[in-house]
Specification:
By secondary structure, the protein is α/β, with parallel strands linked by helices. It has helices at residues 2-17, 19-23, 41-51, 64-79, 146-165, 185-192, 227-233, 263-268, 296-316, and strands at 25-26, 90-98, 104-116, 121-131, 137-138, 141-142, 170-177, 201-207, 217-221, 243-246, 273-277. Bound molecules: zinc ion.
């Protein structure tokens, strides 16, 4: 009997340890087919550090911290010479939502949106986005949100830099969303009040928490909904430093991330999306999500993978 129990325990252990491999698809190609992707990694890390510093007060929608953050992002867009849609980088909208702590808030929120015009089909757009808002403060404690989502926000600057230097075929919208933590409100407002026609959006590429992973794993969610993105974009991705996996689409035993961040707003409108992110970690939505916990090598490589994906999507869409 004891032996049987031992065998069952061993079997259970083996089954559990195989869980990831059987439920998620590992993408990593062994041979790089893409050109070298370079960007200013020191500036990106510095931007993350600034946005997640105490002075930015946790970037809560409608607060002084949010105002500082959006002005910082707009200054970056200006320095990068991004074009404006509708005459301003800011898209304001009234909001009413409740945060992680159950507090209902209302006021005015601001997406920050810049544009890189395409060299061939400039009337078609890839929207690359990341939310910049976070949870604010609690008493004297600051929710710095280094991974969630100063990481994605600062990566936007490197992505913009790359495509300014390597002009894309289609136009690329660089969007820093507000109000994500109170219900994906910024991206929802954007898709419901499009500055450009919805039919002209080719896809959304979303980053939310790409700054650390103990298992060295970057997940991509969204592939079951679009064959082109799966077959021509995701399968071409390459990294010899981090593990790239698809999953969390509701068809495996992992948490379903289809509506977990701003890509959900695009999906509701039938727009294809790829979401890049890591699994929740011990500091998720805690005051300990700080700059020092970012794994810089992982973070920079994750950014490189998102640039690869954006570049590949730009090459693949033909309409
Ligand atoms: Zn987030």
């Amino acid at each position: 009997m004891k032996n049987n129990i031992t065998i069952i325990i061993v079997l259970l252990f083996v089954l559990c340890s195989c869980k990831r491999e059987t439920k998620s698809k590992i993408i990593n190609n062994t041979i790089s087919s893409s050109v070298r992707i370079s960007f200013d990694s020191i500036t990106q890390i510095e931007s993350l550090k600034i946005l997640s510093s105490d002075s930015y007060l946790g970037r809560e929608t409608g607060t002084k911290g949010a105002e500082l953050s959006r002005n910082y992002i707009a200054d970056k867009f200006t320095a990068l010479k991004l074009d404006k849609l509708g005459g301003s980088y800011f898209q304001s909208f009234p909001y009413n939502g409740s945060n992680d702590h159950g507090d209902v808030k209302e006021g005015l929120a601001y997406n920050v949106i810049g544009l890189i015009r395409g060299r061939e089909q400039s009337n078609k757009f890839i929207v690359v986005g990341a939310h910049y808002d976070h949870l604010g403060t609690s008493g004297k404690k600051v929710y710095n949100g280094a991974d969630d989502n100063a990481s994605g926000t600062a990566a936007l600057f490197s992505i913009a830099t790359y495509f300014k230097e390597n002009p894309p075929k289609h136009s690329i919208i660089i969007a820093a969303w507000d109000g994500e933590e109170i219900g994906l409100l910024g991206s929802q407002y954007y898709v419901n009040h499009p500055i450009i026609l919805q039919k002209d959006i080719l896809c959304n590429i979303n980053m939310d928490m790409i700054g650390r992973s103990e298992k060295n794993e970057l997940f991509i969610t969204g592939t079951p909904h679009n064959k082109l993105l799966m077959d021509s974009v995701v399968t071409s991705l390459y990294s010899n430093k981090i593990k790239i996996l698809t999953g969390h689409d509701g068809d495996d035993r992992e948490d379903d991330w289809t509506y977990s961040s701003d890509h959900g707003s695009f999906h509701k409108k039938g727009i294809p999306f790829l979401y890049f992110g890591v699994e929740d970690h011990k500091d998720y939505h805690k005051t300990s999500d700080v700059f020092e916990s970012i794994q810089q090598a992982f973070y920079l490589e994750a950014t490189r993978v998102v640039i690869q994906a954006t570049k590949r999507a730009d090459e693949c869409f033909t309409r």
